[in-house]
Amino acid sequence: MTYTQRYVALGDSFTEGVGDWDPASPNGVRGWADRVAEQLVLADGSWGYANLAIRGKKMRQILDEQVDAALALEPTLVTVYAGANDLLRPRVDIDLLMSGYDDGVGRLRAAGAAVVLFTGFDASGSAVFGKTRGRTAVYNEWVREIADRHEATIVDYWRLREFRDWGYWDVDRMHMSVAGHTLMAARVLEALKASHRIDLPELETRPALNRVGQLRADAQWAREYLTPWVGRRLRGVSSGDDLAPKYPALGRPHRASVSA
């Protein structure tokens, strides 16, 4: 099938859809990008969609492995979020990192694609990831400068205060939940000025924990999620090492194909 409009999503676990678990979808995840594509197809059947994002990828990997592959698909729209995994490393040269990002975004724009970028989330509410808040603020200023230079659209994750509610986060406290991905899809479509029929979820009220209960919950989280995450980084491995892109060629996301 020939698609006159072509949406290609690039990035890491955020764009792959980790946290929005769906065993019927490739790699077992759906995610906000699939949800955006579903709405685009619903409004206009000429849209094709590819998602090249893979969890755990760092900036250089995304630029080296995904940009050329995206350009080969002749995209009219690209969303890209890269660099979050770099900011979590013990050392990072943000200026060097973002210089490469600038080049990659420039290549996508020069090919005629509209580009959507994301600022990083304000993790000040996390005892662990809040320590990267200063780095993320510098990263965000770079993203805004790159967007200005290349006339890209920004989804300002830093300013989306709704995401401070833990109901929008998966149990691993690192990735958005189904509700979070649903909300993000709506915010991306709004940034694109595209119509959508996404019903925003009502969050379940979580029972308040006393101090002992919170300490137990934090200890369980550390055992089940934080320790394995740190261990992978110490070993130089990633949860995405054995994964391929979920939608490497233009087509329709699983749920749009089912409903078509």
Write a brief caption for the model.
It is built from 9 helices and 6 strands. It is α/β, with parallel strands linked by helices and 260 residues long. It has a single domain (5-259), classed as Rossmann fold.
Features:
SGNH hydrolase; SGNH_hydro_sf; 260 residues; alpha/beta; six-stranded mixed β-sheet; single chain; Rossmann fold
Can you walk me through this structure?
This protein is an alpha/beta fold and 260 residues long. The protein has a single domain, classed as Rossmann fold. The chain is 44% helix and 12% strand. It is built from 9 helices and 6 strands, in the order βααβαβααβαβααβα. The protein has a 6-stranded mixed beta sheet, with helices on both faces. 40% of the residues are buried. The model has no long low-confidence stretch (mean pLDDT 91).
Strand content: 5-15%
Number of domains: 1
State the helical fraction.
40-55%
CATH H-tier superfamily:
SGNH hydrolase
Structural class: alpha/beta
Succession of helices and strands? EHHEHEHHEHEHHEH
Summarize the main sheet.
6 strands, mixed
CATH class: Alpha Beta
Show unreliable segments. Answer: none
The overall strand count is: 6
Protein name: SGNH hydrolase
GO molecular function, one term: hydrolase activity
InterPro entries: GDSL_Rv0518-like (IPR053140), SGNH_hydro (IPR013830), SGNH_hydro_sf (IPR036514)
Domain SGNH hydrolase-type esterase: 9-182
Task: Present the secondary structure layout.
Blueprint: E1 5-11, H1 13-16, H2 32-43, E2 47-51, H3 59-72, E3 77-81, H4 84-87, H5 94-110, E4 114-118, H6 133-150, E5 153-155, H7 178-191, H8 211-235, E6 247-251, H9 254-259
Helix pairs in contact: 2-7, 3-5, 5-6
Domain SGNH hydrolase-type esterase: 9-182
InterPro entries: GDSL_Rv0518-like, SGNH_hydro, SGNH_hydro_sf
Protein name: SGNH hydrolase
